[in-house]
Design a protein that fits this description.
Two copies of one chain form a homodimer. The first copy, chain A, has helices spanning 2-10, 18-30, 46-58, 86-93, 106-109, 128-131, 135-150, 162-174, 204-209, 211-225, 231-243, and strands at 13-15, 35-40, 61-66, 100-102, 117-119, 154-158, 180-184, 248-256, 271-279, 282-290. With 295 residues, chain A is α/β, with parallel strands linked by helices.
Chain lengths: 295, 295
């Protein structure tokens, strides 16, 4: 067992077809192994790798998927220029006992005639859903397909895409999917910037301005800690921190219930502060739960 | 094994919760049994029972579901008066080695906060989809839930709901569901009337007029057999047969490609003829594949 893991660590098996994924999973399932899935769009950074690590710690057959899903990008978004580097991704995965890396083509996931979509409803409507029409339908549909193919016991997502985790959990509950959704904390640079594959697009000056996002979240936390209970004041303080940067265009700052994603007047415990902003041409998101220390 | 089946035949186990369904299925799965699912809305007739029979012949753990799914009924449709008789249904199932009858409440299937829907796209748009907006989204969503709960190897549907079988197959393919969809032939009365739970609503005179549906299909088949290749002529002949009954209001007569459900100019081989009509206040559907004998 250890011997086979060592072999796998040095060279994870890369597969490209749904049929081969299912066949490998079926074998692992028959062996009674606990199956973990970490779905990614590649361009792997330490945030993704924290999902992979959690997966490998908790499961016995570990599947990472790398698929830049076209249906979750809008027509004017960065699907074409989204970073892709399979070789670097496989190198980044090599220290982990990943059993399978599933790297399907677009045609493999969306063959000719494909026409089905999952609509998750209310929690997918505001914020990212409003800024990126169709985004969460694309996310939910591809996640459902991956879950159906890999039938994992546990699937791993990052808190960085907070609303995505709410949407996926809603879908899992509503569609009676037999999978546990695990959310791993956002991984940040030492100066606070949340890791994102899109950070690679930032110029040094944009990189400096982008700190306004995490600093806005810190500010929100400090305000809440110091007794501010008015959601509007917190929202405005975060907004002010963002808009003082010349190349930042704010899409939204949300101060919301972490489960319903509905806007709050007074802070709940905890409260989610989430934001999306363009830093130059690059769209970044970040979020944080605040107020957990109250009571 | 035989002993336990005999016991089950006399009294199938009725369960009401998703959790208990999943637990029972998990046990059967661990025992390596081939699992079959026959989803129904109850009011079981010989058509449903032909699905149950096929299921019991081909599978080793047989699940029948009885759930009148509100989301596939339009607001002006007959959800409230749809026939329900659990006792009679269980009696009808008693000759078959059914292992589980799943009879959930509406709240069990759609708990508070439920908000997800599956949209299957093109094949769900015309005919029944156009006549009954939202119908196929309701069907696809509940079928997906049942498939996820029961994780059957095979699921059984009747050809009577032809478009439903096309929609379900499209969903299964698009969402990579690991299940085989089996379609069983329409069961008819000796005079040709397709069995339907809604036939119970027909007065004796309406029952007589309702024969126009199956007779229209026979007429279409005879025309095709005698060399008629023009889809419009066949459609018109069926329409004429229906409209000569005073209490029949035709919703559609479709002469279509059996896979795409797109209208044909010339017959394909085979061609699907499908229809929906109100007979008095009762909406009936019927269909038949014609032209399979050509070549």
């Amino acid at each position: 067992m250890i011997g086979s893991n060592v072999q796998i660590q040095s060279c994870p098996q890369v597969i490209a077809t749904c049929d081969s994924l299912r066949a490998e999973i079926q074998t692992a399932r028959r062996e009674g192994k606990r199956i973990g899935l970490a779905p990614t769009m590649g361009a792997l950074h330490a945030g993704h790798l924290s999902l992979v690590q959690a997966c490998c710690q908790e499961c016995e057959f570990n599947v990472v998927t790398i698929f830049v899903n076209p249906t979750q990008f809008g027509p004017s978004e960065d699907f074409d220029r989204y970073p892709r580097d399979l070789e670097a991704d496989l190198a980044a995965l090599s220290p982990y006992p990943v059993d399978l890396v599933f790297v399907p083509s677009t045609d493999e996931i969306y063959p000719s005639g494909f026409s089905t979509a999952v609509e998750v409803g209310r929690v997918a409507d505001p914020w990212e859903g409003a800024s990126r029409p169709g985004h969460f339908s694309g996310v939910a549909t591809v996640v459902l397909k991956l879950l159906n193919m890999a039938s994992p016991d546990v699937a791993y997502f990052g808190q960085k895409d907070y609303q995505q985790t709410v949407v996926v959990r809603q879908m899992v509950r509503d569609l009676n999917l037999p999978v546990e959704i695990r959310v791993c904390p956002t991984v940040r640079e030492s100066d606070g910037l949340a890791l994102s594959s899109r950070n690679a697009f930032l110029s040094p000056d944009e990189r400096r301005q982008a700190l306004a996002l995490s600093q806005g979240l810190k500010l929100a936390e400090e305000l809440a800690r110091s007794g501010e209970q008015d959601a509007g004041s917190i929202r405005q303080a975060v907004m002010d921190r963002l808009t003082c940067e010349p190349d930042i265009q704010v899409e939204y700052v949300a101060v919301v219930d972490p489960q319903t994603l509905e806007e709050l007047n007074e802070l709940s415990n905890p409260t989610l502060v989430a934001m999306a902003a363009f830093v130059g041409p690059t769209r970044l998101i970040d979020n944080q739960l605040i107020g957990e220390y109250v009571i």
